[in-house]
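[job 0412] stage=fold_complex status=start
inputs:
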Amino acid sequence: MRHHGGMSQHSAGWAAPAAEILRVPSAGLAGVDPDSTPGYEGSKADGALSLESGLLALGDLQERLFARSAVGEARSSVLLVLQAMDSAGKGGIVRHVVGGVDPQGVELAAFKAPTEEERRHDFLWRIEKRLPRQGMIGVFDRSQYEDVLIGRVRELAPAEEIERRYGAIVDFEKRVADAGTRIVKVMLHISRDEQKKRLMERLERPEKHWKFNPGDIDERLLWDDYMAAYDTVFERTSTDVAPWYVIPADHKWYARLAVQELLLAALEDIDPQWPIAGFDVEAEKKRLAAS
Amino acid sequence: MRHHGGMSQHSAGWAAPAAEILRVPSAGLAGVDPDSTPGYEGSKADGALSLESGLLALGDLQERLFARSAVGEARSSVLLVLQAMDSAGKGGIVRHVVGGVDPQGVELAAFKAPTEEERRHDFLWRIEKRLPRQGMIGVFDRSQYEDVLIGRVRELAPAEEIERRYGAIVDFEKRVADAGTRIVKVMLHISRDEQKKRLMERLERPEKHWKFNPGDIDERLLWDDYMAAYDTVFERTSTDVAPWYVIPADHKWYARLAVQELLLAALEDIDPQWPIAGFDVEAEKKRLAAS
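[job 0412] stage=fold_complex status=done
writing structure:
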């Protein structure tokens, strides 16, 4: 069940709209405890039930969004951007939140290190190509922000080029939003200790070894640099049309529920209605009956 | 639970491997009753439980397949080709069978009427571009077969061009299979009466109107021509490396279970094992502990 109150809505269990609670605070990451579960008043067990009922609501909204665009009545789409340190749970969000939606309505793009061809274009070239079509929920597993995160920390581009990119991203996202895409940017925020625990688990379980890369530890050693780079990203690129949300992610169940809640709010804001038939229903019934 | 017997395996509830039971018979569509549930010995309620446990097995196999290719150890993939008359349940297969798998391991391609650019290339050009990457489960919602089904029935190309395509498809699929892709081609077979019932339901429920297209009735009026075109497809393109399966589809629960069983068999035939770590696990543990 969703509560309607003024401009915003929220699901049972939430004290207020997640979009308000989780918007990046002015203090940046220092203002968010990775171990907390802000705004959600239930237990982990309640959270599992909320996730289940939320999937049904999300499925319904997604189908309406898809239907509107299938008949050419709307150009809206949703884009979920996921950024995080290794093992923070991006994969779990894709599997347990996005995975509950009809695959026909989802476009998933995982951005790895750019290919040689991609490096010969502006950093937004490969991003543009993977923007969701109208009616779709797009998900970016990593994104244009890699180019100002690892790009900055590892100095993969000159300082002035990194500087240029913040403004380029803001302009790009404004154009994408103006064209009909609701952009939801999420940073899954885990603590350094929790990351150590999760990486150790990958090392201890042979069936998890493939998920581990020695480079993950190299990046971990630059933790503070990454946190500073994230704070700069928030300062420079959190806008009204494409706000950043920082989601405490030491508790996987909470992070999944929070992302789902943000997606629900984005879709409810679009408020897609079932399209009206563009044909004569009674005439088609007769034609079908006679066939 | 899966039973191992000789070369092939099958899940509880199945009298024999689905790949044997459902392979297109020499009589073609005339040899398959759309209302039947061949090989599955349980009830509809049993089928729902089998589908649930099958999803877990499928998820495990998919993750192994993905892991092997993520570390560069294998080049295998799976390609599920779905063909059917309107309303036969392709969408339900995508949602309820494929939708249970981690979206990160699935590549879905829905082929509509070709664009102008696509029409200026050979009919296989757009197909090639959407083949699944190594480690992925690819799903074609419609496929190269449209070009010898609606292509033949509606005479969208000269007769000799249609003739050429059967051989071209066989050669193409052989190359794709030789390169490491298990091809599972499924025709969902509904009866003409069942289609009428399903289309009428779409017309009677306003939230289903967007799924209805007056053209669906036009195609329905050519039912016998389509059945003949399918039979020709089976005769000309069912090969050992890319066999056709005809799945009775008047019962949605059975069709979903049958497709899942075929996918399970394809993945078990690949038999992907967890990759061996390409790094020194103990050394990495120490490095992580110190970080």
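[job 0412] summary: Chain A touches chain B through 43 residues (CB under 8 Å).
[job 0412] exit 0
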